[in-house]
Write a structure and sequence with these properties.
By secondary structure, the chain is of the alpha+beta class. The chain has one domain: 2,3-Dihydroxybiphenyl 1,2-Dioxygenase, domain 1 (Roll), CATH 3.10.180.10. It is about 15% helix and about 35% strand. It has an 8-stranded mixed beta sheet. An 8-stranded mixed beta sheet has the order 6-7-8-5-9-12-11-10, with helices on one face. A hairpin with a 3-residue loop joins strand 14 and strand 15. The longest helix has 13 residues. The model has no long low-confidence stretch (mean pLDDT about 95).
């Protein structure tokens, strides 16, 4: 069994419009944009990162905004809901705020005793705010969202699957403990993790497969401390029969990827080196940062990207 994973590292999704995406996460949700860079494989497209003050692993939502991309189709084989943790008692504030911003899909729910507020992102993304203990985490306070209600980071994610058994076995191998089941949803929890500790598996045997597009999660990443731990995880996964990529340098972390039995793309990412490797913490996310191989093409790339205010 893998013993190196600490919880979630980041969640990466796709969007249609970069400016709309930036406004939603920095204004509506009050997160900090901690990095403005480009897609490694498509440098005419931004890669935007949002999180807490420093982009702590377990707090970072990232996006590839592809202009004019068709919206995704919800279904099985994807992350259906990305869940953010907020302090207890904060949901009344958020229900009013999101309503005032015209956010759709607002719905009060509970799951395993936790109060939740579900809502839609700009491209139909599935989100929920979940009241949870802070576990030492603090929200970004650089916006008008008060500290008592600010987003602490991720709570977890809900995966939509036609058959959850094999993915449940994988999560157990990754160090998650099977928790309770409520209806069609079973929770898996990382004990003593980084706060972004839960993965819920929702089994929907008759649902159609998802179709990726704007509003779809591209991949979900799990955190390890460093490259040594990552290599150990990679070996254990490969020894178990998973096809795992070589280690890839993503500038702010190293990454490996593999496909789950349910078809979802998992990543394992290092907590090092972090988002302040090329920017002072006071100015994270302000300047356009390019992977080294694209730096000679900066004028052409900047001409193709829509301007996003610092």
């Amino acid at each position: 069994m893998i013993k190196n994973i600490n919880g979630l590292h980041h969640v990466t999704s796709m969007a249609g419009d970069a400016l709309e995406n930036n406004v939603f996460f920095t204004n509506t949700l009050g997160l900090r944009r901690v990095k403005k860079t480009v897609n490694f494989d498509s440098p005419d497209t931004y890669h935007l990162y949002y999180g807490d003050e420093v982009g702590t692993p377990g707090s970072v939502m990232t996006y590839f905004p592809f202009a004019n991309m068709a919206k995704g189709r919800r279904g099985t084989g994807e992350v259906g809901t990305t869940e953010f943790a907020v302090p207890k008692g904060a949901l009344d504030f958020w229900k009013e705020r999101l309503g005032n911003y015209g956010v759709t899909g607002l719905k009060d729910t509970t799951f395993l005793g936790e109060n939740r507020l579900q809502f839609d992102g700009p491209d139909g993304d599935g989100f929920a705010l979940v009241e949870a203990d802070a576990q030492g985490r603090t929200p970004w306070t650089g916006t008008d969202v008060p500290k008592y209600a600010g987003i602490l980071g991720f709570h977890g994610a809900r995966l939509m699957l036609r058959d959850a058994a094999a993915t449940g076995e994988l999560l157990g191998f990754m160090g998650y403990q099977k928790d309770e089941t409520d209806g069609s949803v079973t929770r898996y929890r990382m004990e003593n993790g980084n706060g972004a500790d839960t993965i819920d598996l929702e089994e929907l045997p008759s649902a159609r497969p998802a179709g990726q597009g704007a509003g779809s999660v591209h991949h979900i990443a799990f955190a390890v401390d460093d490259r040594a731990a990552q290599l150990e995880v990679r070996k254990l996964l490969m020894d178990t029969g998973y096809q795992v990529t070589p280690v890839i340098d993503r500038d702010y972390f190293w990454a490996i990827y593999f496909r789950t039995p349910g078809g979802i793309l998992f990543e394992v990412a290092t907590n090092e080196p972090g988002f302040n490797r090329d920017e002072d913490t006071r100015h994270l996310g302000e300047a356009l940062k390019l992977p080294h191989r694209y730096e000679p093409l900066r004028p052409q790339i900047e001409a193709l990207l829509p301007e996003i205010p610092a």
